[in-house]
Design brief:
41% helix, globular, 10 strands, two-stranded antiparallel ribbon, alpha/beta, binds nicotinamide-adenine-dinucleotide
Length: 280
């Protein structure tokens, strides 16, 4: 498994398993067991996914040592203050049955994020989180965060796939030495990116699937990916992307299919951000 070095010196496995929308305990435990068997060590959850406790159980049941795992979770938007962020973090730790997180993210740039960041910095300084970061932060959010932040985020986890490549934000993150992590790397199974003819041709040339080509493309852009699947065969397929390389020409062909088309919520949609404060 390839690892990337974050701006604080910590290493992150460049590919992990996402568990968004896995709403069944048995599905989650089985897929985590399958993933561990296939070599996954990085797992991405969030308080709002309501499955941290199942992930905690699945990891506790495995014989992989805690220090070999990389666990990410996220503080939800309904926690808007310093104290609420600390309390949410403690709850997350308990559910995950661990005494530290590898990465903790502010899930969205909703109300109070500068204060939430201050809480994350305290937890980081206490050694309870190895790396802190943000998610769904665009340039204006990062700029505002950095007016009060003492620590630069290690990661920004943002929607990214071949139809929404985030070229500008990718460059801005690079200029700040913040790692780009892709959520929805496969387009969330929505739209038709998994049937794209350009990707299909490239996949055929490498004897790989379109999903594998997409994941390889992310990796070659130095992006961290956390594809989700609960199917053993796809879990195995999604990590089997380290034995081939896309050429520069193939990388540019994929750059050319960008539609700059978001598939989910817009982080600059203030109305949605406000509504999200009462989602739980
Ligand atoms: P994804 O792009 O990983 O797509 C998952 C879907 O793709 C699956 O449900 C399945 O339908 C399909 N799929 C997976 N592997 C496949 C394969 N090999 N072949 C064909 N189809 C395949 O979407 P996601 O789950 O939304 O994103 C990945 C992870 O990112 C999530 O599980 C979660 O951990 C994280 N995430 C974070 C945010 C955020 O706001 N920070 C938002 C969404 C997701």
């Amino acid at each position: 498994m390839e690892q990337l070095k974050l701006n604080n010196g910590q290493m992150i496995p460049q590919l992990g398993l996402g568990v968004f929308k896995v709403q069944d305990a048995d599905d989650l435990k089985r897929s985590v067991a399958d993933a561990l068997k296939e070599g996954y060590r990085h797992f991405d959850t969030a308080a709002i996914y309501h499955n941290e406790a199942w992930l905690g159980e699945a990891l506790a049941q495995s014989d992989v040592k805690r220090e070999e795992l990389f666990i990410t979770s996220k503080v939800w938007n309904s926690n808007t203050t310093y104290d609420e962020t600390i309390a949410a973090f403690q709850e997350t730790l308990k559910k995950l049955q661990t005494d530290y997180l590898d990465l903790y993210l502010i899930h969205w740039p909703s109300e109070g994020y500068n204060e939430k960041w201050r809480a994350m910095e305290s937890l980081y300084n206490e050694g309870l989180i190895k790396s802190i970061g943000v998610s769904n932060f665009e340039k204006p959010h990062l700029d505002k965060l950095l007016t009060t932040a003492k620590i630069v985020p290690t990661v920004d986890q943002i929607e990214t796939h071949p139809y929404f490549q985030q070229k500008e934000l990718n460059e801005y993150l690079r200029s700040l030495d913040i790692a780009h992590e892709a959520w929805g790397p496969l387009g969330q199974g929505k739209g038709n990116v998994l049937e794209d003819p350009t990707l299909a041709k490239i996949a055929e040339a490498h004897n790989k699937t379109i999903a594998q080509v997409i994941l390889r493309w992310h990796l070659q852009r130095d992006i961290i990916v956390i594809p989700k699947s609960v199917h053993a065969e796809r879990i195995a397929q999604n990590i089997d992307v380290f034995d081939f390389k896309l050429s520069d020409e193939e990388m540019s062909l994929i750059a050319g299919i960008d539609q700059n088309k978001r598939g989910a919520a817009d982080p600059q949609d203030e109305e949605w951000l406000k509504k999200s404060l009462s989602m739980n």
